[in-house]
Amino acid sequence: MFATLSDRLTATFKTLRGKGRLSEADIDATAREIRVALLEADVALPVVKEFIAAVKERARGAEVSQALNPAQQVIKIVNEELVQILGGETRRLRFAKQPPTVIMLAGLQGAGKTTLAGKLALWLKNQGKQPLLVAADLQRPNAVNQLQVVGEQAGVAVFAPEPGNGVGDPVGVARDSIEHATSKLYDVVVVDTAGRLGVDAELMQQAADIRDAVHPDETLFVVDAMIGQDAVTTANAFLDGVGFDGVVLTKLDGDARGGAALSVASVTGRPVMFASAGEKLTDFDVFHPERMASRILD
Ligand code: GDP
């Protein structure tokens, strides 16, 4: 097992007691420990560098207080910086003043979008909302069926093209779904879109066209936490191609080290809003930046 970052920092400062300020050597030693811990958590290197620069600057300015020993003080700074990058407070969904609220999901194929759509719909339903799931992923032959299955499990209606009808026109389906939701008084529409295994110009354009057809109140970028720092490239491509308001991390049950969370939030400046940690529809919650920060530290 790796030593935790808190343990590493505590060990670094073992010999250091009662000094007025942290010395440059102490700060460098701290930076080394943080660097190793973040790289082990699979955080992208540029993010690690930027993070260390911010912590160093704050550590230099900090008086070693009476109440905290140097290790505790640096741990406090690291914790605060981590929470800030991850979005500070939990960023809640913004509901439209005029229903329906439109939530669009974007991300690579296999990221967990369809599963997430079901999880989100159930979560919304449990809050007294009337969600409608929309099958605008017409790329994968089984995607519509898969959404229908999760919709059934969640007890939520699914808007999908009639068989043989609308196939190949995900933008039309998405547009029609809003009319349908408005007339049937659904108050939240969750639009599942297609994703390829790699970033693909045509599908990115399709996602942008769906965005323009449905005017999402929230576009959520869904990303598999297990891809760690590789999430940065995908996140940037989606930010450029479609744009998004928040990030959803999936498969945190497979990798809870936080590399993807920290890298994506830092590079895109978008908060992580939800976390998914399992295949069951109930394995889902809003994301808590401070809990992820403690996980990275402890
Ligand atoms: P999509 O292609 O983005 O729509 O991805 P899917 O929703 O089809 O998910 C791809 C695979 O990942 C499926 O086998 C899901 O059961 C699985 N999956 C989705 N979310 C999670 C999660 O949070 N944890 C785990 N372990 N598996 C997940």
UniProtKB/TrEMBL annotation:
Chain sites annotated for binding GTP: 107-114, 192-196, 250-253
Reactions catalysed, as given in the entry: GTP + H2O = GDP + phosphate + H(+)
GO biological process: SRP-dependent cotranslational protein targeting to membrane
Annotated SRP54-type proteins GTP-binding domain residues: 271-284
Compartments where located: Cytoplasm
Uppermost EC category: hydrolase
Enzyme Commission number(s): 3.6.5.4
GO CC terms: signal recognition particle
Record keywords, A-Z: Cytoplasm, GTP-binding, Hydrolase, Nucleotide-binding, Ribonucleoprotein, RNA-binding, Signal recognition particle
GO molecular function annotation: 7S RNA binding; GTP binding; GTPase activity
Note on domains (UniProt): Composed of three domains: the N-terminal N domain, which is responsible for interactions with the ribosome, the central G domain, which binds GTP, and the C-terminal M domain, which binds the RNA and the signal sequence of the RNC.
Entry function: Involved in targeting and insertion of nascent membrane proteins into the cytoplasmic membrane. Binds to the hydrophobic signal sequence of the ribosome-nascent chain (RNC) as it emerges from the ribosomes. The SRP-RNC complex is then targeted to the cytoplasmic membrane where it interacts with the SRP receptor FtsY.
Family stated for the protein in its record: Belongs to the GTP-binding SRP family. SRP54 subfamily.
Subunit-structure text: Part of the signal recognition particle protein translocation system, which is composed of SRP and FtsY.
Name listed for the protein in its UniProt record: Signal recognition particle protein
Organism: Phytoactinopolyspora halotolerans
Underlying gene: ffh
Residue span relative to the full protein: 1 to 298 of 539
